[in-house]
Amino acid sequence: MKTDTRRLVMFAAALLIAVIAGYGLAKLTGGQDAGPTPASRADDDGHDEKGEHDDHGEEEAVGEAEGEEGLVVLTQPQIEASGIQVVAVGRGGGSETRLSGRVESAIGARAAVAASVGGRVERVIVAPGTSVSAGQPLAVIVSGEAATMRANADAARAEAEAARLVYQRDQALVTQGVVARQELEASRARSLAADAASRAAAAEVAAAGSPNAGGRVTITSPVSGVVGAVQVTPGGFVAAGDVVANVADPSQTELVFSAPPALAAQIAPGARVEVTGTNGSFSALVIGVAADVREQGGMAIIRARAESGPLPPAGSPVSGIVVAAANGEALTVPADAVQTVEGRPVVFVAGDDGFRATPVLAGRRAGSRIEILNGLSGDERVAATNAFLLKAELAKGEAEHGH
């Protein structure tokens, strides 16, 4: 009985194992026929994504082929509307030199009025800051020397008059045969000599300030302007040549710079100087260059005049940058023409289809221009003013291609 029961249990277990194994085999076979496995689906997905990337790369390649690198396409109306200035490449080059200087009264607009004769100061008519016109009195001097000059001039004039009357009398007597012709010629010579002495005495009096009979001399200003300093006081004594007062016209000023002697040989009248003063920055033109014999070491002076607007007051310090001429074959462009694209200097060369960014090797900057050492032949026309707009347009185009 126990043996039959054991056989029945073993038979049931074997049957159960067979059923489970058959079900697993059927499940496995049916899964393969029902659809793709996860691995196959992954392969299909990967294939699709790769295709999409290939298509996107082809589109980028087509976009790059449509637009040339470094070219900004603009029509002539667009160039005019944007204010882009197109200029030719210049030649000349140069080097910058910084100068120190000051504002001074222009030559001819200032005067150091001196006494022409020595004497006592009787009266001072002006004070510092007084506005005067040309010929206006500044001071009165009483001079014994001037009184002597005036007396001598009066005597010489009287002698000349007497000699002239003698000559006229001899002319009448010669016609009557009373006086010989030789005496007439001698009286004529004495009259001419007396006239010359009279003119010399009158000129000496005029040079002394035309003193009156009492020896009073009025010192007058030779220029219009403002009295800067008065060097005399009433009751004081001045010698001939001593300065009585300084007068300068504040509206007529110029710039005076000190420069090395070598630079003076390279600067010519008409050169431009970029000046910085108390009133800001402005441009000036050189009007004269000369050696300053007052300075030790052979320093030269450069005189300049502002192109427009008034200069700072006389005595104000200024600094300037002057461009000295150099090799006439060097190529130069305006400073605005050189732009930095991707870390390198470029200029935008104008062509029929727009502007092309051309890499260049920039050299020294002289004033408002930059020397170009390499990259241009000299026959190009480049964008100058507002060239930064082309740089921005080029960057925008590259950003669009990047997407």
Automatic annotation (TrEMBL):
Residues 57-66 have a biased composition (Acidic residues). Residues 111-248 form the CusB-like barrel-sandwich hybrid domain. Signal peptide: none annotated. InterPro entries: BSH_CusB, CzcB_C, MFP_Cation_Efflux, RND_pump_MFP. The keyword Transport applies. Pfam families: BSH_CusB, CzcB_C. Residues 41-56 have a biased composition (Basic and acidic residues). Residues 331-391 form the CzcB-like C-terminal circularly permuted SH3-like domain. One of its GO terms (cellular component) is cell envelope. One of its GO terms (molecular function) is transmembrane transporter activity. GO terms for biological process: copper ion export; plasma membrane copper ion transport. Residues 30-66 are annotated as: Disordered. The keyword Transport applies. This is Efflux RND transporter periplasmic adaptor subunit. The lineage of its organism: Bacteria, Pseudomonadati, Pseudomonadota, Gammaproteobacteria, Lysobacterales.
